Amino acid sequence: MPEAEPRGDPVLSSGAGLWGLVNNAGISTFGDVEFTSMETYKEVAEVNLWGTVRVTKAFLPLIRRAKEW
Predict the structure, then answer these.
(1) Subunit structure, briefly (predicted)?
(2) Nearest-CA neighbor of 51 among 21, 29, 16, 20?
(3) Is 29 helix (H, G, I), strand (E, B) or coil?
(4) In sequence order, which residues have a C-beta less than 8 Å from that of residue 18 and are 6 or more positions away?
(5) How much is the pTM?
(6) Which residues contact 31 (CB under 8 A, 6 or more apart)?
(7) Which of 26, 20, 32 has its CA nearest to residue 56?
(8) How confident is the model at residue 25 (pLDDT cuts 50, 70, 90)?
(9) Per-residue pLDDT tens over the stretch 31-43
(10) Could you tell me if 1 and 42 are in contact, meaning their C-beta atoms sit under 8 angstroms apart?
């Protein structure tokens, strides 16, 4: 998976920073545990857990900048 990174939005490049971040993405699966593959569980964790971590890490410098602004 590629790392998340902020792109050239003029608001973000103004130097003001970012006051908040909403990680609002996720996938779900349903069904009996014994019939759901480990690959499916890994995909859910990749998106819901590691996707959130990637996006947060990418925007954390901008959030910290907002504290200084």
Answers:
(1) Homotetramer.
(2) 21
(3) coil
(4) 12, 59, 62, 63, 65, 66
(5) 0.68
(6) none
(7) 20
(8) confident
(9) 999 999 999 999 9
(10) no
